[in-house]
Design a protein that fits this description.
65 residues; alpha+beta; Factor Xa Inhibitor; three-stranded antiparallel β-sheet; 3 helices; 35% helix
Length: 65
């Protein structure tokens, strides 16, 4: 059976932690941030865990990580 190909777009956006959790950076951090509240800006700095169906689908796209 041939080797599986890693989806490079997903592998650049998602990190796998030691405990096999998927970490994703928050979307919408590039521009138009002046209009947002301080709480929103602060919350965008932190990464988030992926759960559920998203996690299963993305794990299939990055088989060797």
């Amino acid at each position: 059976m041939p080797k599986l190909k890693t989806n490079k777009t997903i592998s650049k956006r998602v990190r796998l932690t030691k405990g096999n959790k998927l970490r994703v950076s928050t979307a919408g951090q590039n521009h138009f941030n002046a209009r947002e509240r301080g709480n929103t800006t602060r919350n965008k700095r932190s990464d988030h865990n992926l759960t559920g169906a998203n996690k299963l689908n993305i794990k299939k796209l990055i088989p060797y990580s």
